Each structure stands twice: as C-alpha cells, then as structure tokens.
Amino acid sequence: MEAKTNIAERTVEIKSPKKSTWEQMKRMKLLYIMLLFPAIMLFIFNYLPMYGVIIAFKKFSPGLGIWDSPWNDFDHFKRLFTDFMFLRALKNTLLISILKIAIAFPAPIIFAILLNEIRNQKFLKVTQSISYLPHFMSWVILSAMVIEVFSPQRGIINFIITAFGGDPVNFLASKVFFIPVLLLTDIWKEIGYGAIIYLATISSIDPALYEAAEMDGAGRFKKMIHITLPSIMPMVIILFILRLGGILNAGFDQILNLYNPLVYEVADIIDTYVYRSGLEQFQFDYATAVGLFKNVIGIIFILGANAIIRRKSEHGIW
Question: What kind of fold does domain 65-312 have according to CATH?
C-alpha cells in the first residue's frame, strides 16, 4: 500500500507542472491571442512562399505552373559549378564578405568603446545622432550621394586630388578602387547603428569593476582593455556567428545601386547575379537554384561557427 501511495504521489508531482503551465496559459490567453496574429502573418509571408523553391528542381514553365513543370534531375545545380559567371560571382561574394567581416565588423565595436569614453554629454549626443542618421536612409538615396562625392567631374574627392596637381579618378568605374569604396561607405552607413547594441552592453557593466581597477592604478586605456572588452565579448561572439551565417550576403542593395558593367569582374556578387538571371533573363528556375545554394551554405556556416565557438568557450547562439 505504501508503495502504491508513493507511485501515486510521484505521478501527481510529474503531472502538476503540466497543469500549472496550462493554467498559466489560460491566465495569459489575451497575450497568446495577440501572439497568434503575428505568427499567422509569419507563416503566410515567410513559410508559405518556400513552396516556390520547388522550381529549383524543375524545368519551370510559367504556362505549365510549378507542379506540372517537368523535373530536371538537378541540372540547375550541375550548371552552377560549370557557369563562369556564377563562379566569378561566388568568388567576389566571398572576397567582399570576408573584407567586410575583417574591416567593417570591428568598426562599431571600436566606435562604441570610443563613445563610452566621451565625458561631454552634449558632444556625445550630437556624435551619436550624426552617426545613426545614414542607417535610416536607403541605399537608393545614399548611392546618389556617394556617386556625387566620387564623381570625376563634380565630386569633392576629385576636386581635392586635382587641387594638389593629380588627375581625376573615376572611383566607381575602377576595378582597383570600387571595393575600397564599398567598404568605406558600408562602414559609414552602419557604424553608428551597429554601435547601439555594444553601448547597451557596456552600460550594463558593474561600475564597481572600474572603481576597483582605479584603486589598483589602472588608467582609462587599461580599463578599456581589461574590463570593457572582456565584458562585451559574449555579445561580439554572438553577432560574429550571425554575421558568418550571412557570409554570402555581400550587400545587394549597396552594390546594385553603385556598380556598373565596367566593374562586374570584381563587383558582381551572387545576389546581383540572381537578380539579372531571374528578373532580366527570366531564368526563374536557375535563379532559384542559385539562391537555394546560397541559403544552404549560410546555414552550414552559422551551424559550424556556433559549434566551433561552443567547443572553445561557453558562448554561442544556443
């Protein structure tokens, strides 16, 4: 009898959390109802369109539709690795993405640390406002500004060059200068907004750590190196992993609005190649295959980076 009683008590103990969870859901039913509408929209606009990925495996004909179009035995994926234009776009995408990770990714971190060292609050607010502004402007607007600044005839950069006796340079039509212009303008657009999350992380650091460091004779630079940087490192690692997941996203909007046929050799990336193949040449099935390949590589990168970093440290996305 005692054994049966113990089993019954354990059964009650196991089932009680489920009951309490259900009761909590009933108490918060209005919140779940509010969550239902965004979930439905997410399903309709983000998951249902995945049905169209099927055309990557078919010889798509708009007249026949997706299901009635014949299967192509992975012909589009076989074509990827024999297509010179795709291989060039893949190489350019990797090169530009790696350069952006190496140069543009650390820029908001450095900028946030420098902002944290500013003691004049008025100057700090003005600096932050100016640095945030480009993020909220589209590349359509910013590219027009960049084209004017680097224009061989009207641009201020070439005005300075000619003032010192040099010859005007068409930066946006030069295979040598186009990528540096991409990196510079990308940093200019995102450095302020990207620093926000690091500033929020820095603001959560315990002030007692800085006070203890001051008592030990540490200056501002040493406090920055030994307290600020280690404290924001978990956030840096998480954002770095997410950035690796988008390694094949080299900046479609930016490049589409700035590049031209003269720099296709160094500036044509997977996204612009998909754009031309799908919307200009009407190769919808092949463009879908290219996009699917890109997304699969992105998933592999983000899973691999997270696994490696989790082995080396306790930080990661999950």
Answer: MetI-like fold (1.10.3720)
